[in-house]
Amino acid sequence: MTESLGTDLLWEEFHRAVNMNSEELRSYLLADASNEDGFPPDPDLGIDELGRGVLHVLSKRKGDLTRTDLDVMRQVIELVETLDGRTDDESRRELMSVGHDPLRG
Length: 105
Fold this sequence. Notes:
Structural class: mainly alpha
Number of helices: 5
Order of helices and strands: HHHHH
Radius of gyration: 14 Å
Distance between the termini: 33 Å
Helix content: 55-70%
Shape: globular
Low-confidence stretches: 36-44
Largest sheet: none
Strand content: under 5%
């Protein structure tokens, strides 16, 4: 029961931190991964690993989360808490790569 309560709180905090939906995040990651040279030849298309993890979590129900998913959720919350409020472009890009648009209210 304690683990379930922890998961419930983590789930809520994660969904407060991630204020982009999966389509918005997927589009952002694909646009960010492409550059003037086009997509890299590897199968991950140069997409940020943590961003892929966020997309994976967003596609799940709370009851289907794995330990890896919980780790991703914790990392995202910590990153958002650390960088939120910064106004530089690099911080905004990093936040958006995990589904948090700091310009949204």
